[in-house]
Structures
1.
Amino acid sequence: MAVAEEQHFGRAAARLYISQPSLSNQIHKFERTLGTDLFVRTSRHVELTPAGRALLEEAPLALAALERAAERTRLAGAGIAGTVRLAYTPAASFETLGAILAAVEDDNPSLTVVPSEVFSAAIPGHVLAGKVDVGVALEPEPMRGVRSEPLRTETLVLLVGTRHRLADASVVPLASLANETLLLFPRELAPAHYDRIVAACEQVGFEPHVTSFPDPPPQATLARLPAGREVSLAPASFGRHAAAAEPGIVARELAGPAILAKWSIVWPARTQSAAVTRFLDSARRCAHENKWLSSPTETSSAELGASTPAPL
């Protein structure tokens, strides 16, 4: 570009702080690579050929793109930019996911998060296989090679249709569900969380009558509730937002033994990019500022399946 602008090899070389022979050799090599002449050379001045004029039009765009690529590479290496693939369980799709993504955006505006919906039981395997970088799951099962850290603890709420007999109560005893049909996810999608629900029901004297469907989207469960023949339990962060969005559904507090939803964030134990580190830092800040963890003992981090805590 300097030669094209100066139309003189000597002046261009001086502008670039290199010798004229060196500049001439570089241009000759470039012309051989392109397979065409870029300049018409005379004893007095240099003119661009049609090919040279075409290159001059495109060169600024190419140089700007190269500069942007170099800057993005630098930012990615520092974890300031890049992409994090996030798997989240469907029940996180309202408040929990939104709060985490907002925190990441505030802390790292150049970081791109690509979320995908995956049931809790499959998330550690996806992380270990490299399909995703980070996961948010309900009580994920232990898996070596995957680390886990508590993210949020909250109670479950009862979801019922507005026509249901329990809809008018502000607080519903868990024992009142003894004769109800309980819509739940299949146990294999979140075994520990499922067992926690069943154990709480048994604690107040009944075995729940559960109906479930393979790979059910939350919307399918919600769509059945307005009829008033079934009930469901959900983490409060999901249940209250779902009830607000669905005119035929209400969320009610449960009385009796508290049934907790314990969320964890999971990531690979051995390979961790700077972008993942920044994502985890933002998620931790989000949990702290929103007071998501009810007990200090839940904030320790450990490798899933390991018998002793592992340092961050």
2.
Amino acid sequence: MDSPGIDIHLDFTLTLINFVISGLIENAEYTGHYYYLLLKKQVKLYEEIFIMEKQQIQKLKSSFDEISHMTEDGVEFWYARELMGQLGYDRWENFEKAVNRAIESCESAQNKVNDHFREVTKMIPIGKGGNRPVKDYMLTRYACYLVAQNGDPRKEQIAFAQSYFAVQTRKQELIEERIAYIERSNARDRLKESEKRLSQNIYERGVDDAGFGRIRSKGDQALFGGNTTKDMKRKFGVSDNRPLADFLPTLTIAAKNLATEMTNYNVEEKDLQGEFSITDEHVQNNRTVRNMLGERGIQPENLPPAEDIKKLERKARAQEKKITENSSGFSGE
């Protein structure tokens, strides 16, 4: 796990707000409106790449454990209507859409739907001591995983469930490890998107691919206290043909993304032209983020490297494959 990033990631976001509002907007070159828009966007992104505290993970884990059931044949399952609330849904109509998409995913994977999704009827109480029948589903662990994969990704419970049902064992540390991977992977994807946008922006302003590489390298040098991208790769033992970001902890990836987003905004807002002016902008933004981190006693170049994200992706895919292979299905029709 990226332990250095987990403990300070939320402080990083909150400090960022205070730092920018209290300091940088005093610079007449920047407007309060600019930082309001930028911070609003960044906070939204970081909320999506939230860091779960161990107590919250334990609480969610316990709530999922408590509603599990076992058939006479020893097959573990969950009722959809009980799972619905745990996944943050209030209305059955909305949740059933996720269940139906999960059934389609099961069929696409060429797995027998009836082995993992068993439609049942339950009686629920109504007024004056009466009951009425409602549709429900018995869901195997694999079915629950597919439901989580097809659920609303904005819900915190969905992100947890994707890890909970993917890990065959109920050991909390393995669930935490997978959640940390998802958070880091999401942060990495955000950085890819912002760097792609920067590449497009500068290409439209007369800078070629080689110039983009130089701009990004100068930004890294400002963020890492004078260490170039090559210096950091050498320090982390990263080969020349691999991106440095694939080995950075979540916190550093988020820092790089913030600086890049700031550059994108100013390049577009001020219509900056040419390699020199865009480089100057990107260096200033990386330096700003570094200074903020420094106020918290954090030096990005001194944070330990994280495990190769490609290796973690392969591990996650292997886990997902095992879900299908090892998940017991319902017997009979």
3.
Amino acid sequence: MWRIIDISGEDYKIICSQENFVALKDSEEKLRVHFSDINSIIIHSYSINISGVLVQKLIEYNIPLIICDRAHNPCGMLIQCFKHTEYGNRIQIQINVSKPMLKKAWKQIIEAKITNQYKVLFSLNKKNEAEILKKYSNEVKSGDSTNREASASRVYFQSLFDNFKRDSESNDIINSSLNYAYAVLRSNVARAVVGAGLNPALGIFHSHKHNYFCLVDDLMEPLRPFVDFYIKENYDKIKEHNSLNSETKKILVGIIDKEFDYNGEMLNILNISQRYVMSYINYLNKNIKKILIPYL
């Protein structure tokens, strides 16, 4: 079972020792995990010492290192790049892809995202709201030119939790849990993207000179409802803690071990992401007309 390592608190030193990630505090060993058992690492600290050898090992094992701000919101990520043997060929394909192909890809992604949101609400017996989302998913145009994604999002989040407004800057327990779990999802999709030799900065829809992970943010959209559904399933346990503490985080990182159906197979989030990314590559190569996008 892969582990997500969460380092909270001050004055930690994290190093590499014999192919192991080691966390020290006041020269005392607090944690030792082999790199092959690590999914990702999340750091919430302004006073931490990271060795250069450790950084090299994280890159070698393609382990994302996620940095959080003072509000515990993810604000940066270190990840491997340029190591895939097909990197040169694949970046050329990404650069040369036509605008119409990208717009068709974005249409497929948004249709899938809204359909997954529909399935979440339907499973919660919110059938009236679910039908609205089903209608929106059928109305998505090339490039989502009519912005059905935003319309669906408003209906979806208002229905998913009582008296709730999605706000990534808010520190309430639901928004904080979503931010944290989305960061876990993002790191897994990023790992799949760079592992397949794609440049994560070359997005489908998102484009921003300060965002190196535009493609990751695009591809993860249909997977967000997987996270929402998982949090809703565990809502009572999360609400008991009412803060993003260590117990809440233990619940949230469980998303990486949960298996979902993907094309007839039960797979975890990382394996789904890897196959999904390869399907996107096949789409770019014009081997297939539709990306094999994950559905709930």
